[in-house]
Each structure stands twice: as structure tokens, then as C-alpha cells.
Amino acid sequence: MMKSCYVNNKSLSWACHICITTVSLLYFYLNRRHGYLEKLSLPHEKAFLCFGSPPILWYNYIHHFYFMEAFKRFKSQTFTRYNGSLPTLTTMNPMEKIKDKNLLLTLSDGSLWKLLRKDITPVFTSGKLKEMMEPVSDIANQFVAYIETQSSEGKSIKIQDKFQGLTLDIINACAYGIKTNSSEEPDHELLRHSKIFPGMFKYVDMFGKANDELIKIANSIIETRESHNIEKKDFLNVLVQMRKKSHEDPNTLLNDEIITAQAIIFFIAGYSTTSTTLCCLTYMLATHPEIQEKLYKEIVSSEDKDFSEHSYTSAVIKETLRMYPPVALHLRVCAKDTEVEGIPIKKGTIIEMPIYASHYNPEFFPNPNEFKPERFFQENNLEIIPNTYRPFGNGNRSCIAYRLSFHILVFGYRNHQKLKGAGAS
């Protein structure tokens, strides 16, 4: 009995020694990594022991409010912190030198990104977009007809769901050549799986399942087109051609998985951001009737014309995107040791650009809480500091679907205004 007790105590002692040694080594390793940022002449968010700067995890409010509070507290447009053990430079400084030659997109290395962009960018030229947007008018009219029916029957409408459906139908038609009617088929498999993505970080397992299902659907469509030599004027056709090239070139960086992933990335980027912006746009116009009336008059008088980048419609959408940016944070990773405005940045450092904080900085946008589309009138363009307005990103790696997103927003609200003109609320 005593011997057994002695053995157990000895085992427990060894276990304690191992745990203490492991924790100590981890502590010293992480703290050694934590020495880099403290040496920079920048405000620094102090790390909590070896676990990094805690506010993002511990503050019980949306993280972009943390960034706004931190910039105000530090009285600086740039500060540093640790994301776990990862050194992070957080900035809303519109530094011209933070460009893609120094910073690489997180999801793909530089050479792979150049290869992808070379093939994908032509899809978003003005001519290609006009071809892709041909089905939009019918889809928008279909959407309006459904809303009119629901309204005439006195039924309440959850507009966020309906805008998600509208956006999904447009993306399916323009990008993938699939005809869907989400208003009449709310349980369509694409809509069902797509609803997972806005909360993907909260439900990781569900996100994985939805991702797998969407990949299966994309693969199925691509394989059908390849086997039947089907060609359409849409985004998926570009991916089909990319797959053919990759199969012919054994040295290419592309493979079927990477190419199919572009279909999913395009879907996620266009679906959630556009439908959310449509909801915000609806709210802002409902609470600013004078702006809505002016917008309505332009839409009615220009119904069969293209909306230019300098139209009132464009200004209203841009101001909505300023106040409600679809992406709250842009992330880049430094690809090599470099220096920006006298600040040495090591390879592997995360560059964090909080968009919401930038858009609500009164130094960049006076009276930022006011909804003022005139900020984006052509004559006021010079007053906007470059790189301070970036709802879709900026530079060579700005959101590749910006033009498509803009067109969807214009078409979506153009038809919503037609509904208002018919007397619906």
C-alpha cells in the first residue's frame, strides 16, 4: 500500500515537472517573439502574459469599436499588438508605400495570385460585365413581383432574407449560369448552404459542411460543362478554361482544388456583402426621405440608361458603403523585411487595416455619422484622401468583384424604387 502510494506520488511529481517545464519553455518562447514590436517607436497594446493582446477576445463588443477606441486612446493612426503570438501592425494611416509589392494576400502566395488574377480579371471588364448582367433585369422584375404580391396580401416581409435571395439569384445566373428563384424556392440547396457563411466563424463545423456542399455543386457544374463542351458568358466558364490549361501544363501552380475554390470565394464575397449592403441602403433611404426622393427621380429619368460612376445613385451607394463597409478589416502579411515611413516591418508581420475606423475618422470624413452622398460627387473627389475609403479594398488587390457588386446594387435598388413608385411600402 505504502509502495503504491510512493510510486503514485513519484509519478505525480514527474508529471508536475514536465508540465512546469513545458509551460516555462512555451512562455519564454512566446515572450521572446513578443520582443519585436516593443522596440518600435509606436504605441503598443500590451500583451497579456504570453497570449497576446487580449481586447479582441475579452471586450464584450464588436471588434471595430475596439479599434476606434484604441486609435482614440493612443492618439495615433497606427499602433501595434499581438494576435496570439503573431506580431501585428494595426493602421488606418493611408500610407502610399503599403502596396502589394511588399504585402501579399493572405490566402495565396504572390506568384499564385498573379496567375489567378491574370485569368480572372478579364471577366470584370465593362464589356464582359454587360454580357453577364443580361439576366439581371428579369430576376429583378421577378423579385419585385413577389414583393408586390406579398404586400398586396398584407404580409410582412423579412427584407434581409429577400435581399439575400435576390443576390443569390443574380450571382447564380451571372457567374454560374444557374437559374434559381429564391422567392419561390426558399429551401433551394444553394440558398440553404449559403446562409451558413455569414456566421461561419461562430459555427465552424457547419461552415465546413456548407463549404463541402458548395464545392460539390461547383465541381458538378464544371464537369458537366467540360464533358458536353458547354460555353457560357459567365465566371464559371473562365474556371473551366483555367482547368483545361492546368491539365495541359504539368508545371502550373494551379490545380483543380484551387480553381474550384475561386468559385466558392466569388460566391461568398458577392453574396453576403451585397445583400447586407442592400439592407443598409434600404434603411438609410427609409430614414432619409429627401435623399430617397432625389434618388428616385434620377432612377425614373434614367431607367434605360447606364448609371455612371458620377451619378447620384453611385454617390448614395458609395456613402452607404462608407457607413456600412461590407468588410470591417483588411489583412495582409508582409512578404519580406521592409521599411515603411521609417518603420521596420519584419517578414511575417500581419498588417491590419480597420476599415470601419478609417471610414468614421473625422479627419478623413468630416461629420462621419451623417449620411451625406455629396461627399462622393465628382467635384468633391479631391477632398477624399487616397486610401481612406476602401469598402472593397484598394490597389492591385482590391476586391476583384467590385464592379459586379456595384452593378448588382444598382439593379437591385432600381427595381425596389419601381416598387415604391407603385405605392408599396
Automatic annotation (TrEMBL):
Instruction: Say if the entry is tagged with keyword Membrane.
Output: yes
Q: Name one GO cellular component term.
A: endoplasmic reticulum membrane
Predominant location of this chain?
Answer: endoplasmic reticulum
Q: What membrane topology does this protein have?
A: Peripheral membrane protein
Q: Which InterPro entries match?
A: Cyt_P450, Cyt_P450_CS, Cyt_P450_E_grp-I, Cyt_P450_sf, Insect_CytP450_Detox
Cofactors: heme
Q: Where in the cell is it found?
A: Endoplasmic reticulum membrane; Microsome membrane
Provide the binding site for heme: C399
Q: Which domain of life is it from?
A: Eukaryota
Known EC number: 1.14.14.1
What Gene Ontology terms describe what this protein does at the molecular function level?
Answer: heme binding; iron ion binding; oxidoreductase activity, acting on paired donors, with incorporation or reduction of molecular oxygen, reduced flavin or flavoprotein as one donor, and incorporation of one atom of oxygen
Q: Which Pfam families match?
A: p450
Describe the family membership recorded for this protein in Swiss-Prot or TrEMBL: Belongs to the cytochrome P450 family.
Designated name of the protein: CYP3A
